[in-house]
Structure formats: structure tokens, C-alpha cells
Write a structure and sequence with these properties.
Strand content: 15-25%
Strand order of the largest sheet: 4-11-6-7-8
Helix content: 25-40%
Order of helices and strands: EEHEEEEEEEEEHHH
Shape: flat
Low-confidence stretches: 1-25, 48-78
Number of helices: 4
Distance between the termini: 51 Å
């Protein structure tokens, strides 16, 4: 075998000869062939190992750079804002503007969880798209043409605050939460470099609350979407809506699907 090194720093192993059934080779020749194959394979694997470690090193550098750019806690000062616990506004009320904005590093704030009266609360980062727009004028009817609104975290149905998809998802930390109703501490990174703020205008964090409800038919449709290949109108209309609860009827349906007398197993 021969190892060939090309201009792109890659190694290729080529056979120098082929063995046929009629070829007679001495034991000494076989030993030399085995030694060459061992050496060539070793060189080839060493090259792959070096390339792998090189790629890993590059990835670590890129990850470190990205982490620093996103404002991780490496070499940063964490400003813990004590004395203020923010609450989500009522559903239908105007957004609550937090007094803190991103000025570098990262900071920790306390925010109350959602509740039965506030099914969903979302923390956003809002930035005016034009320097003539005042961030303090943002309202529930504001248009996205005027503000760049980025989700930061959410709390729903009384659960603890959690990350959401977006530029904050990687480095945001929920450091502590009370058991049951109460507040969570959110460690918010600085990701200004990832946000659209070319006008260098003032930005703010805002809290907004939302509600969402489904009719009984919609809940049954969603249940069938999750358990079958999809419902038909007949399936939705034939549901027993007079059952004590939808949940009990759904449990009954699942149990019936497990009854082999009604749904025989097939091979």
C-alpha cells in the first residue's frame, strides 16, 4: 500500500498490487506486506486524529467567541437587582415595562410566575425600529413595523419561567424558583450584538400576558390529532360530550384501544 498526500492535506491509501489466487508469495514477503499495511494504516489514522482534534479546537474557539459575544458569565459582572419583584400584567392590560435595559454584562431579576388568572406570561425585549419612536409608547396594539420584539422567557399555567426559542435561549438561566406560586430569578444575558438595533436607540424588557381557550370540539380534535392519523368530522361529532369530563372520556377511549377484543393485535 502507498499513502499519497495531496494539496488539500488529505491522505489516501492506494494498493500497489493485487493478489490473485494463482500468486505464490513467500512468508517473508507476506510479513513485509503486513508491516507496510500496518504502518500505512497507522499514518492514516494519525492524520485523521490530528484533523479531528484540529476541528475540535476550532469549534471550541468558535463556541467560546460566540459565548462571549452573547454575554455569558465568563469575565462578566452579574448585576443582581434586589428589592423589586415584577408581576405579569392582567390579561388585556398594557405591557409592563421593566426599568432595566441591556447596558452590558448580564443581570438577574425576579418575576412572578403565571397563574390561573394569567394563563401565559411572556418576557420580551423590545427595540424601536426608528430613532423617532419612544420605547415608552409601546402598547398592546403596537405594530411590529415600529418595534422589534424578541421573546426572552415564558411562564404558563403557574409553571416556572423557562427559556424560549430565540437569541436568549442559549445563555439565559432560571437560577431559582419558589415552590408553588411565587417568583423565579432569571439571569438574563446581553445579546445586543444579535439583535437589530442599528439605530442605537433605547430598548426595554416588557412583560405581556395572554389567554387562550379551546372549545370541547377543539379539544377532542386535538386529542385525535395526537392519538390517531387525524380525526374526521364524524369522529368529532360522535364524541360523548355528556361525560363528566373530557379527560375521563379520553381515558376510556385509550383503554378501549388497548382491549384486544375490540382491537385485535395483528402480525
Amino acid at each position: 500500500y502507498r499513502v499519497v498526500h495531496n494539496s488539500s492535506n488529505s491522505y489516501f491509501v492506494f494498493p500497489l498490487f493485487h493478489l490473485h489466487q494463482t500468486t505464490i508469495i513467500s512468508p517473508f514477503a507476506i510479513q513485509r506486506i503486513a508491516l507496510k499495511m500496518f504502518l500505512c494504516t497507522t499514518l492514516f489514522l494519525l492524520h485523521l486524529s490530528a484533523s479531528f482534534h484540529g476541528c475540535l479546537a476550532d469549534s471550541e474557539v468558535n463556541a467560546s467567541h460566540s459565548s462571549l459575544r452573547a454575554g455569558s458569565n465568563v469575565g462578566r459582572i452579574n448585576r443582581v437587582l434586589t428589592g423589586t419583584t415584577y408581576s405579569c400584567p392582567s390579561v388585556g392590560a398594557e405591557p409592563s415595562l421593566l426599568s432595566e435595559g441591556e447596558i452590558g454584562g448580564f443581570f438577574t431579576i425576579q418575576i412572578e410566575k403565571s397563574s390561573s388568572a394569567i394563563p401565559l406570561c411572556i418576557l420580551f425585549h423590545a427595540t424601536p425600529r426608528d430613532s423617532s419612536i419612544d420605547i415608552n409608547t409601546i402598547s398592546s396594539t403596537s405594530k411590529t413595523d415600529d418595534f422589534n420584539i424578541v421573546p426572552v422567557a415564558r411562564s404558563y399555567s403557574g409553571f416556572s419561567w423557562e427559556r424560549v426559542a430565540g437569541p436568549y435561549a442559549h445563555d439565559l438561566e432560571v437560577t431559582s424558583c419558589t415552590t408553588g406560586p411565587g417568583a423565579c430569578s432569571l439571569q438574563i444575558p446581553n445579546v445586543l450584538n444579535d439583535l437589530d438595533n442599528s439605530n442605537n436607540v433605547e430598548s426595554k424588557f416588557i412583560l405581556m400576558s395572554f389567554t387562550h381557550s379551546l372549545s370541547s370540539q377543539e379539544q377532542v380534535s386535538r386529542f385525535y390529532q395526537q392519538t390517531t392519523f387525524g380525526p374526521t368530522k364524524q369522529m368529532i361529532d360522535s364524541w360523548n360530550y355528556n361525560a363528566p369530563t373530557l379527560g375521563s372520556e379520553m381515558a376510556k377511549w385509550v383503554k378501549s384501544q388497548m382491549d384486544e377484543t375490540q382491537t385485535p393485535s395483528t402480525l
